[in-house]
UniProtKB/TrEMBL annotation:
Catalytic activity, EC: 2.7.7.40
Entry's family note: Belongs to the IspD/TarI cytidylyltransferase family. IspD subfamily.
Entry keyword Kinase: no
Protein known as: D-ribitol-5-phosphate cytidylyltransferase
Gene field: crppa
Length: 463
């Protein structure tokens, strides 16, 4: 394996995701690779005028067997919300415009599976290579692959665990810049528990002063030459039993890594319960907002405004728009939840139009989209009473809509990873009952969006 310095490349136009204001909470991930690159925004380092003007590639070791999860499937290939864990991690890197390529290192028996994942979820910067018998051998294979291809060798190589999906661009930027300057860099976190040493008989020998030590985390970054040389010089013992890449850079290249404090979200999926936690975090991230489509009807707008206020109390932001045309078409590229409010006899055709627009946008390949069809009509008979009007039986084009029709529409949408639910408001002439119905509508809407349950698609719920 030979090494040479790459020539710098110009920074690509930034397409970093546009963070919502509450995503700045340090205890929650900004976005776990959720939003596509076409949702343009500005990251903190770009607002400061900085740029990455050198080539950066990523190596994701993914050859583990997942013994600690107690599952037959290695944890990196375990799925939730219709996608394997490793796909979320890949997307977190793919959305960073200045990352040139991603090499995923997998066990030979999983090469076909990994290739299928890359194709099915339309990952563009990725190629899979077979791993080795140990972690270091697998990483070495990934580094070697970066030098064997037709692409120009990167100046900096970022190494990250495939089972750590919650990594943001700001940390990647800090790691890349520090690695380019220092030769090596790595994320660290404070120790949560005190580390102790035991005797061979199982008694306490001594404890370490926790304030002086840190937990080594991922990602880690190296110049290509440093990590390449470290693996050329390291011993068989290092390959077999070593786990720390920063140590190899120090021992064999004399490169003292720059250590960078990482956020709390760098945790690694290790146990079965961690998969449930990762799913919960991604669901929470996907459910922070929704788009309400009214069709321009005054009655639909009235209902949408009431729903907007009620859902806001449940920590969800709603934008109310008349349609998905013109400047509103941008919601197709940035929103994951849509609520069609229908008050006329063509309600199914309205939601069918939304489904058609979403299918054309081709975004459901990454995450399940939620569409909620809310049917009901509110009229104000006087200043003190409001009520829903219309028959108890849903209708479209003058004909009653059978539940099977709604179920068929939802079943077809489900194949495209779009989850369609229905909610009908019961008619009432009583103001208090109306308010309770709207509150119930908000609660059902929030629950459907947060849970994203495929088992409930096609159901017509009552509010």
């Amino acid at each position: 394996m030979t090494c040479r310095d790459p020539s710098p490349t110009q920074l690509m136009e930034d397409n970093h995701i546009n963070m919502q204001s509450h995503s700045c909470d340090p205890d929650r991930p900004a976005h776990p690779g959720i939003f596509p690159t076409r949702e343009a925004g500005k990251s903190n380092h770009q607002l400061a005028g900085s740029s990455v003007d050198f080539l950066v590639s990523v190596v994701l070791p993914a050859g583990g067997t997942g013994e600690r999860t107690g599952l037959q499937t290695p944890k990196q290939f375990c799925s939730f919300l219709g996608r394997p864990l490793i796909s979320y991690t890949i997307q977190a890197f793919e959305r960073v415009s200045w990352i040139q390529s991603i090499v995923v290192v997998v066990a030979k028996e999983n090469m076909d599976l990994m290739t299928d994942i890359v194709q099915r979820f339309q990952h563009k910067k990725v190629r899979a290579v077979p791993g080795g018998s140990t972690r270091h051998r697998s990483i070495c294979n990934g580094v070697r692959a970066l030098g064997d291809g037709e692409e120009e060798r990167p100046k900096v190589v970022i190494i990250h665990d495939a089972v750590r999906p919650f990594v943001d661009e700001d940390l990647l930027y800090k790691i890349a810049m520090a690695a380019e300057e220092q030769g090596a860099a790595g994320a660290i976190r404070p120790l949560v528990s005190t580390v102790i040493a035991t005797t061979s008989e199982g008694y306490l020998d001594h404890s370490l002063e926790r304030a002086k030590y840190r937990a080594s985390e991922m990602p880690q970054g190296f110049t290509y030459d440093v990590i390449c040389q470290a693996y050329q010089k390291c011993s068989e013992s290092d390959f077999e039993f070593g786990t720390e890449c920063l140590h190899l850079a120090l021992q064999y290249c004399g490169t003292n890594a720059k250590l960078i404090q990482g956020p709390p979200t760098l945790w690694k999926v290790t146990y079965k319960r961690d998969l449930a936690a990762a799913e919960s975090i991604i669901k929470e991230t996907l459910s922070r907002s929704a788009c309400v489509i009214t069709g321009g009807s005054e009655q639909a707008v009235t209902l949408a405004d009431a729903l907007q206020k009620a859902v806001g109390a449940l920590d969800m932001k709603l934008d109310v728009i008349p349609d998905l045309m013109g400047e509103n078409a941008g919601y197709l590229l940035k929103e994951w939840n849509f609520i069609q409010v229908s008050v006329n006899r063509s309600c199914l055709s309205e939601v069918e139009a939304v489904l058609t627009d979403l299918q054309a946008a081709n975004r459901a390949v990454l995450h399940p989209l939620v569409v909620i069809w809310t049917s009901g009509r509110r009229t104000d008979s006087d200043s003190s009473k409001v009520h829903l009007s219309g028959s108890d039986e849903l209708s479209v084009s003058g004909r009653g809509v059978e539940p099977a029709t709604i179920m068929d529409l939802a079943s077809a949408a489900k194949f495209r990873n779009i989850l369609l639910y229905g909610i009908q408001l019961r008619q009432t002439k009583d103001a208090e009952r109306w308010e309770r119905s709207v509150l119930r509508l908000a609660e059902i809407t929030s629950a459907l969006i947060r849970e994203r349950s495929p088992a409930l698609v096609g159901q017509l719920l009552q509010a």
